[in-house]
Write a structure and sequence with these properties.
Length: 422
Amino acid sequence: MSGLNSSKRRTVLKGAAAALAAALTGCASVSTSSAKPRVVVVGGGWGGLGAVRTLAASGKVDVTLVEPNTSFMSCPLSVLYIAGNAPASDFQRSYAVLDTLGVRQIRERVLEIDRAGKAVKTATQRLPYDYLVLSTGVEYMEETLPGYAEAREQLPVGFRAFEQMAVQREVATFLEKGGNFIITAPKPPYRCPPAPYERACLIAERMKEKGTKGKIILVDANPNPMPPPIAKPVQQAMQQLYAGQIEYITNADLKSVDAGKKILATSKGDINFQHANIILPMRAPGLIRQAGLGQRWADIKLPSFQSQADENIFIVGDSQGTPLPKSGHVAFGAGQQVGAQILDMLAGQYKVPGLGDNVTLPSGICWGKVSRTQAIMINVSPSIEVGQPPQMKFQVDPAHNTASSKGAMEWGNMMWDAMLGA
Ligand SMILES: Cc1cc2nc3c(=O)[nH]c(=O)nc-3n(C[C@H](O)[C@H](O)[C@H](O)COP(=O)(O)OP(=O)(O)OC[C@H]3O[C@@H](n4cnc5c(N)ncnc54)[C@H](O)[C@@H]3O)c2cc1C
């Protein structure tokens, strides 16, 4: 690690710690009086929890979180569970603390947004809102790969919370029996671009340890590992550490998959496999598109994250369709920002940034683990001159190293505490 990167990481960690402290201030005074303005947050993942914690800490609004899962599971760092290095519980947290903060929790899925009536509908409830925050993550574009939908159960993607269990079972069988394990990487934008390479590396490490006979075939729709700033260190790690385990095929478009015959047809030819982790192209969930909030991704205004179609709706996290990285760190920061903005709007104190103003956007930090003890850190500092596209400044480790691997776990624990710690 260079000194610059270490100090940058300390700054990022300090910033997140300060945000956490700010978010927790005043949480004891929260009540659920119905006279308060109502904010409904849909999605209890990274972005939703950033908004919930900030809003609940103010004590000034009634906060309702709608989330079908009974607990939280992190995608970041859960590769350690998928590869068999750590239990799933290391990456899970309870939602119980939200009860103590006065957040009303609805364990259901929102099925429809009634924009005209300013309410969301679940199977059993209609929840009115003054402001709505959506952080519903991604869905997979199954129709892009003929043969996939029929075989969905056998070919788990594992890029959403709790889906990691099905991928972990597939990996465990592969490590035992060997053969060809296909992992695919789609073209961006998709959730956490370094993740397919990270997954390949961590499984390859276990192959070496267990003496698994076979190989991982990494079928990439791109010419290099994504995002481009990490292409070199990722490729270097794959070559240095796993030349005997990973075959890397680039610029390969997927044509179809036959799960019965176990053949993946690609623009580079047919590939036989025994096991596969097909990582599909992604988009915002249907809920957002059906509400007229965007086509593939939600259309929002920056820097406010306000929907272009509806000023009472904010969309954060991976569903939003700007060039901001689809990262948990960015999602959490955007959730915090939107929570604070809503409070300012309600207090009549929100200052709309003017055309040409320079505004800092939520920063991102992403970790590409390449082994249990080595990782590559990617820092992104986005900003925007209002009216122009956002600009992204990347800082990337030149090579994999142990300091970033340690930093990754510290970051994970700090973020999970900020989301769901006391
Ligand atoms: C393997 C992997 C590694 C990653 N590593 C990193 C990393 O190192 N650093 C980093 O910053 N990011 C990383 N990410 C990315 C990070 O996980 C996402 O960017 C983050 O989860 C986005 O937050 P979100 O709130 O948009 O979505 P999520 O965290 O997925 O939350 C969405 C929530 O919405 C709920 N939901 C969906 N639809 C509805 C509905 N209709 N009604 C109610 N609830 C609904 C879901 O149940 C879910 O809980 C990684 C991702 C993966 C897959």
